[in-house]
Design brief:
Length: 183
């Protein structure tokens, strides 16, 4: 997805795009299913041959609740910033211009270039903001570890102690020390 930086004489402008997952070249991400096209809002500020593009990409997506595994709708978004400089022959960016902020991407455009490819920046912004753990509600009790019943909907007949057999030796050791301390 190319963005023409010098198409308008305006020094400030905003553009909005709607693109599909395939158009962005993003592979499907486990646990996140986009419900429609991605909306990309770009704010473009141009000062002579330097252009700053601040963008935000959003999409509504189905994700699984981290506790009960029910699908829930969540707005997934990410932001990016790109600074592009059109160089004159033999000119380049100084290190001081590019090392100020790690969250800003710098691009050097050749004299005859007027556009930048945004797909990579959008891809990175989304991947950095993949939801880590989303729950359907604060009161979600999740699933019973023994039988798998959703605890908020149905009563569970499992015993309340789901002790892991691998910890039994430690439990015995603690029980023996406890009985020695009582004597």
């Amino acid at each position: 997805m190319k963005l023409d930086l010098f198409q308008s004489k305006d020094h400030k402008r905003e553009e909005t795009f709607s693109v599909s997952l395939e158009e962005l070249g993003i592979e499907k991400i486990d646990g996140v299913e986009p419900l429609g096209d991605f909306t990309i809002n770009c704010r473009i500020i141009r000062n002579d041959d330097i252009v700053r593009v601040s963008g935000k990409v959003t999409v509504n997506a189905n994700v699984e609740c981290a506790r009960c595994l029910d699908p829930i709708e969540h707005e997934w978004s990410g932001s990016f910033t790109v600074v592009a400089k059109k160089t004159k022959k033999g000119e380049s960016l100084n290190d001081s211009e590019t090392s100020d902020n790690d969250e800003i991407n710098y691009i050097i455009l050749k004299t005859d270039e007027n556009s930048i490819e945004l797909s990579g920046f959008v891809h990175d912004a989304l991947l950095l903001d993949v939801p880590f753990k989303i729950v359907c509600g604060e009161n979600c009790r999740g699933l019973c570890p023994a039988c798998g019943i959703k605890l908020g909907n149905e009563p569970c007949d499992c015993s309340s102690s789901h002790a892991d057999e691998r910890w039994q030796d430690l439990k015995n050791l603690l029980d023996n020390n406890g009985s020695k301390n009582k004597n």
